[in-house]
Amino acid sequence: MADNIIQVEHLEHWYGEFKAVDDVCFSVKEGEIYSFLGPNGAGKSTVINILITLLPLQGGSVKVAGYDVASQPEEVRKAIGVVFQDETLDRDLTVWETLEFHGRIYSLPREERRRRTEEMIALVELEDKRDVRTRHLSGGMKRRLEIARGLMTNPKVLFLDEPTIGLDTQTRMRLWEYIKKVNQAGTTIFLTTHYMDEADQVSNWIDIMDHGRIIASGNPLKLKNELGRDMIYLETSDDEAALNMVRGLDVVKDARRDSKGVRVTITTDGTHCLPVIMERLKDQGLAITGVNLKKPTLDDVFVYHTGRNIRNASGERLSARAFARRH
Amino acid sequence: MALEFLNVYWRDMLRFFRFRALLVSSLVQPALWLALYGAAMSSNFSRFASALPIPQGAVSVSYLTFLGAGVIALTALFTSLFGGISLLFDKNWGLLREVFASPMPRTHIIIGIGFSGVTKSLLQVLVIMGFGLLIGVRFFAGYSPLRTAAAVVGILVFVGIFSLGFLFLSSAISMSMDTPEGLQGVITLLTLPIFFASNALYPIDAFPGPMKMVSAFNPLTHLVNGVRYFAIGSDFYATGYHYIYTTGDMVRSMLALAVFAALMFLAARWVFRRAVVT
Question: Which ipTM was obtained for this model?
């Protein structure tokens, strides 16, 4: 497995009595965009913090860029770039000073430091903000600066923890252009995100984590296909009865209650299957008040595996952070 | 070369000079201390002291001059004890994660903060000395220019070592605390005994026994001794007491400060090694 830039084996982590990470194994291939997904509290942040050497390794083994995080943390640090989930900019430094400081603590020689600073400022298009203190930048600019900072040392792996959180759609799209550009230049991307559409579009590989374990792995297409060919969403006069009825059908792979209706995944073409199901429900005396047919998305994959919608699962924390940032 | 601490120093000084208000207040505050407290107490002490006979051959110095050395020491104490606070903010604002995830050794953070704090202390001390001379503190009386220069260097060395010790202590406390409120409480609690069980404002000869013990081990007392030795002389009379400092006293005070600084560095290093910032 020489081409794996990250190799995690039997990783465990405890907080006192609580086992936050339980026998986690995964690998990331060099040059790919890897997405590490899961609801809050799943253990994602713990895994990332171990990978970037901010938390000590308790059990298992982790290699990043060929170095062991426990015995060669300095080498790992030199080989990676990190964009943290929360803002980590010094508000009183200017854009240029922020990058200069970063280059300094990574011991880049003066000439290289200055050259890289200019390159990075150009890459994220902050030329006209060079001497502006970061407190005066917009959210999107701050994020771009943090990405520039993470890339400054030419890392083999760039860790992006929720890089687009709280940003508007346009800014998100622009950020993704930079990230893809960087990836095409050879940097492996390790990504966490709450935006399933982003993960779906960019990832070569996805691992979903919940309750300290990896519960699903694959490329986005495979994960979606595993769910079945189509998804049907039903609202009826009696969802419990409808659920029992559809569960008895051969074509139904999975059926479960949702907040308002019943979510059914089927193994055949929904356009022909749906009328039959509706017929059956009517025969049972159930009134259908709403119906929807669609292809499974990564959101559905997430709900299927974790039993939770990623936005619901995280809503509270997101708003708390948004609040903290503004104040 | 292991000079990474210069990066931390660079950033801290950048911020120090950027915040004009902070810069100015940190320089004006000790001057005000000297001007207000000094003027008020000076006249009182002079009234008491005039009743006492001055021993033969001793040079009498005013209370303001006596206090001048104390204010220099107190300023160094306060500035240094609060000098590590920026680390707590860096920690709470997430800035420290960038540094902890970088290849820079953590001890360099301690050293960088230490050196920038010392720089601030020395700047303040120079300003207070200048201001003090203006309002009638009689430092370096009768000294030749060369001897004055040597005395200033001596004072700065004492202040530097003393400040380093308290900056390391401050860094260790800041890293162990979670809130600025808690930090402020701990530091205020520390400040009081260090402040009052010292010879900064008054002589310690009349202290009750236990307090005298504390003051003998108090780094502030050693600093004040050093500053008075260099600024006033080895033999003078003030606040009703005759002060005689020998070279041995000075070496002892200097060593005490150096040992204190070394111990505080080890404490800070221990705290930083164990610190987890996520």
Answer: 0.84
